[in-house]
Design brief:
Globin-like; 69% helix; 8 helices
Length: 141
Amino acid sequence: MTTTVHSIFADSVQKAEAWVNDMMEELNLHDPHRACSIVRGVLHALRDRLTPEEAVQLAAQMPEVIRGMYFEGWKIHGKPIKMRHKQEFLDHALHHARIEMGTELEPAIRGVFRMLSRRISEGEITDIVRTLPEELRELWP
């Protein structure tokens, strides 16, 4: 059997598509670009709030394509960013989503967290939630 570049990446792309489709369904979206933007924004805010070690442990359970999006532009120096309040987290996620969100940002964040809770091991989610201040824990399902 001949291996092509496409076949090498096909599995990862398929897994990433499943994540995006899950997000589209979770938020009743019909635009995959918008879903990817929301996922990127929330993942970047979460990544920046976690210790580098915890951020890497979370990434290890992501499909390669999503992992690439997650680490895009990451600078390990100065992490974690101490976002203690929900509004700080919302603002950080919005900045990284790079889209207009309006009033739907908090439900979108909750949706990404529900999706992560289904796709990441329970132990890893427990570790992540434990590191967050109470106001941010309230965003998890």
